[in-house]
Structure formats: structure tokens, C-alpha cells
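Notes to self after the call with IL:
- keep both proteins in one doc
- input above output, always
- annotate only the second one for now

Protein 1:
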Amino acid sequence: MEPIRNAVHLCVDMQRIFAKGGIWETPWMERVLPVIVEIAERYAKRTVFTRFITPVTSEQRPGQWQKYYRRWERATRQRLAPDQLDLVPALARFAPPAEVIDKPAYSAFFQSDLDTFLREKRIETLVLTGAETDVCVLATALAAVDRGFRAVIVEDAICSSSDAGHDALMTMYRDRLQEQIEVVSAAHMLAVWIDDH
């Protein structure tokens, strides 16, 4: 693996709503959290956390999102406890200096300030961690590829509420998208990341 340079650690949606007891609980988030904490601790100034922000009501989202939020009405902000959209406490302590960027949909790039932030910082590589492997991490990784970023997925620092979905996506990342998405362990990634800023 080539050295990682001009990079940020992009941690996707590690929020209370996805943690134990949350509406969208991702059961093995707890298993990957220590790995993500280690990365964020080492690269706090180069970490960007995203937060998936639900609408106040389903009518605030277009098209099929309205159907989705009618099903998940208790996830809308009119019903949800506000702290459920916060980062989990183990990661919240890193912001600041870490950045927090909110988004209304799966991709971290969609209707957010992420692309502008990365371009202004002249970032070339995104080291991806977070939740969920087969939804928001997937959407963010593909959007990063579309924009020409190098995408590095830390395999022991992503999680899903679906084991089948996680496994399928790990296969796709490795076998179908290997020229554009690199999959690596946290230990390997930390060994090759050159903090050049």
C-alpha cells in the first residue's frame, strides 16, 4: 500500500441514534468504537465527523424519503430526543479540534460543506470509518471516488446492523472496486499514514 498523505479521517455517523439503545441500533458499533477512538485520538486535528440529521417531519424530505420517514416517524426530530443525533461520547470529546459536518442523507457529500472543506484543505485521501458499511459509508465512499479522492476503508473500523450487507459490501469493495477503494486494517493504515500537515 502506498503511503497515505494529505488525508483526513472521515468518520461517518457514529451517533447515539445508531449506538446501543438507539432507534437504529447497530449492534456491533461497540466492537469497532475502540479502533475509531484510537484513530481519532491520533489524528484529532485531521478528523471530520459526519452526523446524519433527520428532518423535523417527513414532509421536509423529497420523494421516497417521505415514505421512509413515515415508517420511521420516531426518528424525526419532532419525536426524537435531541441528544440522539449527537456523536457518541467516546468520540464527541475530540470535537474540537475535529470538525463536525452535518448531512441530511446517506452520502457525507450530499447538501453538506464537506467537499468545500476538503478542497480548501487540499485533501487528497479520505480514511473512512463509521456506520453503516452498506449505507452511509457506501454512499460516501462512492461519492468520494466520483470526486477523485483516494478512498481508504478501515475494515475493522466500520460496522453495519446487517451482517449480510456488511459482508457483501466488503466483497464488493475488495473485488469490484479495488482500483478506486482500498480496504486495510487499522494497524496497517496507521503504519503508512504520514501526517504531513
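Protein 2 (the one to annotate):
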Amino acid sequence: MTERGNPGTSSRAVLRDLMTTQVAKTTPDTSVAAAAAGMVAANVGSTVVMQGSFLAGILTERDVLKAAASGTDLTASKVSEWMTPDPQSASPDTPAEEAAQIMLMNGFRHLPVVDDHTVCGVVSLRDLFSARIRRPLAP
């Protein structure tokens, strides 16, 4: 189970209220199979790729599916070959609506949340939709 922030009562949610704080992490040299196993164990759809303490990329379910469909050996193929390098990120204070717009305009479903150069969470479109359902737009 992943931990999520407290959605609070504000009509203008920010990412710190919605993000998953237990972030799956991997390295560029990890095999795709091992990274995918970590995502399954954490019950998440993405893993942030760290180079030391720096965010180097993100590997998502879609990336793993592309790698599998290519016929490559997922136990030999490295995360660095399939990840999105230098992904866009947002701060914990980014409004949910702004994050949703970034994700939809760029065609991705997971957005790392970075505070002072430290990955502190990941928000998914599912997280944003769930917040919208719990807290509909004011009339």
C-alpha cells in the first residue's frame, strides 16, 4: 500500500496533498525485469531512476511494455535503455490542475515531485482524477 498526503479541505489541492510518498526507485544500470519487479512489489506504475541523489529518469509501465514487445531480454536490458531521461517534475506546491495540464499536454501519466532537488513523491493521473472525484469543482 502506498502512502498518500492528506487531501485536506481546500478547493485548490496541491501535489503534496495528492502524491504518493513511498516512491519506487531504481538506477540506470538495473535490469528492466528487476525494476518492473520493484514496481509490482510497491504496487505503483512507475519508478524514478536515480543517479546518486539526482533524478536521472523515470521508467513506467508503458516503458516496460515497450521493452517486452521489442523482444529484448528484460533481465539483460538496462533501465537506461528504456527510461525517459531528465523527466519533467513539479514541486509539492504545484496546483493539481497545473500538474494535470502538464501531464496531458506532454502525454505522460506520472510526474515526479521534487522539493529542493530531492524526489519526495510521484503523482499519477489516477491520483489527480481521484482527487477530482472526491472534491468536485465548485459551481
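Annotation: The mean pLDDT is 89. The two ends are 34 Å apart (CA to CA).
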